[in-house]
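Shipment paperwork, digital attachment
Item: protein structure file
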Amino acid sequence: MLANMNPELWAAGSVPTVSPNDIAVLLDKRSQFLKEFGEQPTVVDPRIFGQACDPDTDVTAAWYRTSMLGLLQRGGLLPSDLSDEAKSVVFELVATFPIKQMEIGKVYHGLPADLQELATKIKQQLDTLGQQA
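Attachment content:
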């Protein structure tokens, strides 16, 4: 499990795909932490995330993808009250959509292009479900 936490991230710059279930469980963990600690800065042992994910998961990739989902939510590009069916669609897209690692030291004005494209794809899928994004 801890061996699957790659501190150098990914040499190719692309974030590996993960299981949609890993996105769901990490969001649940985040929710638990927010209930317990609020928005105050909190240090969390990364092994907690590893224990929540499937054993063969690249936990760093799952965390990164879940964080990008959080950026989309905080940016108002995704509603926070999705139906279970809509959540499944969103988790599948976030888990598998090609995402590049954000470059350290690069200043981003708005979302990187791949995240904007992901947000558009999610919106399209939610629209087909009749769920507003």
